[in-house]
Amino acid sequence: MRVKVLGSAAGGGFPQWNCGCSNCNRIRAGVLKGRVRTQAQVAISAAHGKWLLLNASPDLRQQILENPEFAPAEETRSTPIVGIILTSADVDCVMGLLHLREFQPLVIYATAGVRRVLTEENSLFRTLMRAIPPVRWESLEIGKPVGVHQDSAAGTGAGLHCTAVSVGGAFPDYVSDALRRNLPEQEAVIGLEFCADGKRFFYAPNLPGRGEEWKRHASESNLALLDATFWTDDELVRVRGSGKTAREMGHLPLSGANGLLDQFKDVKNVRRVLIHMNNTNPALDEESPANRELRDAGWEIATDGMEMDV
Amino acid sequence: MRVKVLGSAAGGGFPQWNCGCSNCNRIRAGVLKGRVRTQAQVAISAAHGKWLLLNASPDLRQQILENPEFAPAEETRSTPIVGIILTSADVDCVMGLLHLREFQPLVIYATAGVRRVLTEENSLFRTLMRAIPPVRWESLEIGKPVGVHQDSAAGTGAGLHCTAVSVGGAFPDYVSDALRRNLPEQEAVIGLEFCADGKRFFYAPNLPGRGEEWKRHASESNLALLDATFWTDDELVRVRGSGKTAREMGHLPLSGANGLLDQFKDVKNVRRVLIHMNNTNPALDEESPANRELRDAGWEIATDGMEMDV
Asked: Is B134 on the interface with A (CB under 8 A)?
């Protein structure tokens, strides 16, 4: 498996368009030692130059254009992108589907709950059905491996399987109460475990951190690419003066008792990489104590363009 | 009035992510004399460094970051962007509203019909209501000037007025039949006439070209920034082998009998600029006969970053 990070920030990106926090101000002024980042977007390839997108970020058009391996072959519409796998219905996971509306047959893998949110109360996504053949939705069931074929015509890539892993969490605030009542909450947010050639890659850009299932999958993987939205539980409350804590928003903070670093401290032999870092996270500053603490604990921090082989 | 073009292409941009047409292939290969273009996005400023966005393109985050005058003042969330005026509910006019979801109070001006499409059958846009105060929707009625204040607190910019102009056209295909039946079609697609200090600017990035109203407003303006999606009526049909004509899609083609150039040939004293050019339009090639014909007829072609004073 080849894993490519096209975007590494949380929703809004870094810097965020309307934010005047210390990190955003300093990166705009060119005085922060760190990198600008588009919103979290990952692609995975198993064979034959075909790619699956993990979520569809709001910056997806820009991300595709900046990485030439995603350009179509000359004189055709033969994009190497064959499908998208969604981990939630959050805006920053799904908005980019609308970038893909240009009459392109694609497969979208999602839980039934996420699919219902998009297709039953967001008519914009009908633009995806104009393709010939139209976009096809495939269901992901918790714990059930699915062959995510990289090239359905040739049957290549059949060795790549994806399993939806329950991580806790809730459907986004924007979902209507009427629909929410009819959706099983375990379908709201999932992690993805990919297996190919005896290797495992676990992806959870939104990690509420409830239950033990996510930790088992992360600990048994060769590569874990995990949610790094917030450094502390009260990070946004302190910046805004009010609002929800990290845990209330469905993000296990990195630091503190029972935070991600704490929960992972006894795990061995897993390449551990952080993604989906919010603009307020002090670790974005490469000279910060938080950044140093992450590196000392054996974590890498994903950057736009980073590639990993599993 | 200062008018700034942040994006100048039609939906999908140039190049388009999955397109292997001659224009897209050549711009990717660096052998087309022309410019890459993000999706159509215009901003207008009347006073005090505050800006109104005309539509909200899918590329809006990238466009804001690339133009430093839209960055917030240091240490605050005081974005100079105070509102958005929508001309239709097309994906490429509205998707960018989701880029603006970061808890920012804003005013969105739209016809009641466009507002209903977004708020009644697209729950994603509820993310805009999290701001304190939440995003405020203001109705545009055809033919009725509205003061689009640049700074509602101080009352500055009160001299800038916007009038919705009927241009024909239909609601997008994605809108449900049930809602469509209840919406007046004249609210589907509008042009915008701005007046300040005795000057007029007319904006119509989607110009079906029906009726005479649009032509009167365009002809009487100091600056007309108009739909240049397609060069010929059958342009997309020839590229794809099937599909709708330009006119059937709600775009008056530039060339041919009764096309935009033909209809505008006797108009004098209007600065005329083209925007919303589709990736298939031959005029994107600056060495093409189409491009030469446009320039010979007195038209300019908008590029990303272009600024105009009216």
From this structure: no
Give residue-wise pLDDT tens across range B47-81.
778 999 999 999 999 999 999 999 998 766 689 99
Q: Are A208 and A250 in contact (CB under 8 A)?
A: yes
Of B113, B108, B101, the C-alpha closest to B183 is B113
- Please list the residues that pair with A309 across neighbouring strands: A2
- Fill in the DSSP letter of residue A223: E
Nearest-angstrom CA–CA distance, A271 and A222: 6
Torsion, Cα B36 B38 B41 B47, to 10 degrees, reads: -70
Tally Cβ neighbours within 10 Å of residue A198: 7
How far is Cα B88 from Cα B82, in angstroms, rounded to an integer? 19
**What does the H/E/C string look like for A236-279?**
HHHHHCCCCCCCCCCCCCCCCCCCHHHHCCCCCCCEEEEECECC
Instruction: Give the pair of three-digit tokens for residue B203.
Output: 């904006």
Among B103, B123, B179, most A C-beta atoms within 10 A, so best to mutate, is: B123
Q: What is the ipTM of this complex?
A: 0.95
Is the sign of the CA dihedral A84, A88, A93, A97 positive or negative? Answer: positive
Verify whether the Cβ–Cβ distance A172 to B72 is below 8 Å: no
Q: How far apart are CA B38 and CA B75, in angstroms?
A: 30
B102 interfacial to chain A (CB closer than 8 Å)? yes
A268 contact partners, CB below 8 Å, separation of at least 6: none
Q: Strand pairing partners for A164?
A: A142, A192
A248-282 tens-digit pLDDT: 999 999 999 999 999 999 999 999 999 999 999 99
How far does Cα A244 stand from its chain's mean position? 21
Q: Which of the pair, B242 or B220, is modelled with greater confidence? A: B220
Residues on chain B touching A12 (C-beta within 8 angstroms) = 102
Interface size A-B, in CB pairs within 8 Å, comes to 139
Is this model's pTM higher than 0.80 or not? Answer: yes
Q: Which residues of A touch B100 (CB under 8 A)?
A: 17-18
